[in-house]
């Protein structure tokens, strides 16, 4: 079973984005709220968006299951206030739940959190609990920069995040650390802010003892970990200089990297440098880059074709990267798949 | 001849840092200025700092010449006002000129610029001109984030930077795009902000036509280009998606990467992915990481030992990376070396 741990509903029906625009404009204009009931999306619209989008590519590429979350850039936590973000998160997460209800064999739900600049994380912990316990979600996205491009929040290792981490541990679900949009003209979104977010979060973890406080907390760094594997020696040296324990001891029991790296040489580096137990297959299709690479004939984000072409990955490691690790990092996925099997037997 | 294009005076005599502290405190306290005349550093102190520091390592590693600039983190452009930054830049640059005067065979000077949040770049252009024409400098450092960790400035491709670029072109010297310190608790300096700065600057260039306006402008991205070579496919795909010309056409005539990547696998990726003509040897010794790597027995920043151990680099490419490219990118270095030869003949 090949599990893609990183997919967003980037092909959502336009009504979703239109509702969000109305929500933002109403709040910015007069502080008014727009009811979620004003958003109407039919099952047929969802089916069309998925069948012509992510499901089509799943089938073409031979992957089985995508961990599916709302559009990451569109989380855009800086807009409005905490209530804006809460309502938007619920709307987005409820739509993801419907996708995964319509296509239970192909998609498992991952939620966004109602983070908001300066807000506590208690609302995020509550929305996580709602999604996991009521709607069967298996993980969440955690934005390390709710200011969306200006890094105004404390690091992820600050105690302000602890209510969320307590809930993640209690529910036994991981978080993917994923920034949202950049509203900073100097810092482009998908090719700068995204990668910087991964690099910055990793370094926050290197400087802290977060995993002493939460030994079972699991965090996934998307986009191959930003700059991290390419600069693995820099981080190893940093820890040595400061007399801190090595990465293997301090981080690699809790931190995982996805494979959203869009050329073979990059993926060779990732799979050479990072232990296979810490790598989760992912494509982020249909996402940051949509073109076909003229050098390979595949889309840039067809990371399965790229990984298939790397012979140095041992068979056991390949199985772990393609799905085994995801089942370990997302244990609720195992329960979900077992429930589905039971239903199929009935 | 092996040229290290990236070295900072991180071992400067303590009097320099003490003067800078007084400068900052006086301005923050009452807006007062501290005269550069209050800084006294003897030639013997400079000799000791260099002979026990960068020169010792040059000899041990078998490199010949370091392009030497003030401490990058210590540029700290956010402190004080434009005048603070101008005086600090002159003090720092004058000290670099003295180092290179005392050790003309081993060091060539690169200046910092008196950037300041919100200030125009005319003072930077003037200080560049002073350093190049009066003191024999061959390049400069350009900070893409004078806010030091919050990215408050427009992108490097904004017209506000054009007076500096005009001067760089007129004087035929390149700029290394290097952030200074991070004063943002969420974004550590050497292992997050530095790499993010490189990634962000590269993406700014990908989005613009800067080099149409300045076809001979040359920019060096330090730290192996941040996340860029590891995510080369992402950038290629981004340009294709937007119908922009490929990297070879749009950027690689003007943008160069240094080799400050502190493990062999990272340098293999760099030298595989980026054309050899765009790579300049560098170590940034004595800098971000000072430990010896127990896996190699060399210091992490001994990039020469790492590159020497990569057999896939063709001999011509190796010569270009180790020095040929630097002579091309820093043409004033050629003139400087020729002057020295003439002096030696006399």
Element layout with pairings:
The structure is a homodimer of 346-residue chains.
Chain A: E1 3-8, H1 14-30, H2 43-51, H3 54-61, E2 65-69, H4 82-102, E3 107-111, H5 122-135, E4 139-142, H6 162-171, E5 175-177, H7 189-206, H8 210-213, E6 219-221, H9 232-241, H10 247-250, E7 255-258, H11 264-273, E8 279-280, H12 303-308, H13 315-329, H14 331-345
Parallel strand pairs in A: 1-2, 2-3, 3-4, 4-5, 5-6, 6-7, 7-8
Helix pairs in contact in A: 4-5, 5-6, 13-14
Keywords (chains A, B): Lyase
Protein name (chains A, B): Amidohydrolase
GO molecular function (chains A, B): carboxy-lyase activity; hydrolase activity
Structure description:
2 copies of one chain form a homodimer. Chain A is α/β, with parallel strands linked by helices and 346 residues long. The first copy, chain A, has a single domain (3-345), classed as TIM Barrel (Alpha-Beta Barrel), CATH 3.20.20. Chain A is 47% helix and 9% strand. In chain A, strands 1-2-3-4-5-6-7-8 form an 8-stranded parallel β-sheet. The longest helix of chain A is centred in the N-terminal third of the chain and has 21 residues, at 82-102. The mean pLDDT of chain A is 97. At the A-B interface, helix 7, helix 9 and helix 11 of A face helix 7, helix 9 and helix 11 of B.
């Amino acid at each position: 079973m090949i599990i893609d741990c990183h997919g967003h509903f980037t092909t959502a029906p336009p009504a979703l984005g239109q509702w969000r625009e109305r929500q933002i404009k109403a709040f910015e204009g007069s502080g008014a709220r727009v009811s979620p009931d004003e958003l109407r999306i039919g099952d047929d619209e969802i089916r069309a968006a998925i069948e012509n989008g992510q499901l089509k590519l799943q089938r073409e590429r031979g992957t089985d299951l995508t961990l599916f979350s709302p559009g990451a850039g569109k989380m855009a936590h800086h807009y409005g206030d905490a209530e804006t973000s809460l309502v938007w998160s619920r709307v987005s997460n409820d739509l993801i739940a419907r996708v995964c209800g319509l296509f239970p064999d192909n998609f498992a739900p991952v939620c966004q959190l109602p983070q908001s600049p300066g807000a506590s994380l208690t609302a995020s912990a509550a929305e996580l609990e709602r999604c996991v316990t009521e709607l069967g979600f298996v993980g969440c996205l955690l934005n390390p920069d709710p200011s969306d491009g200006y890094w105004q929040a404390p690091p992820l290792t600050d105690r302000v995040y602890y209510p969320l981490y307590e809930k993640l541990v209690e529910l036994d679900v991981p978080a993917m650390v994923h920034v949202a949009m950049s509203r900073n003209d100097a810092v482009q979104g998908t090719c700068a802010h995204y990668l910087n977010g991964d690099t910055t979060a990793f370094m926050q973890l290197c400087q802290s003892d977060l995993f002493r406080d939460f030994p079972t907390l699991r965090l996934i760094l998307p986009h191959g970990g930003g700059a991290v594997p390419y600069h693995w020696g820099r981080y190893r040296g940093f820890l040595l200089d400061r007399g801190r324990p090595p990465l293997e001891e301090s981080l690699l029991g809790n931190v995982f990297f996805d494979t959203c790296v869009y050329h073979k040489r990059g993926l060779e580096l990732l799979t050479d440098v990072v232990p296979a137990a810490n790598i989760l297959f992912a494509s982020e299709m249909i996402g940051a880059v949509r073109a076909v690479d003229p050098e390979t004939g595949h889309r840039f984000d067809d990371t399965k074709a790229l990984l298939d072409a790397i012979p140095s990955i041992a068979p056991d490691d390949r199985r772990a990267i393609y799905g085994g690790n995801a089942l370990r990092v997302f244990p609720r996925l195992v329960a979900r798949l077992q429930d589905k099997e039971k239903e199929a037997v009935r």
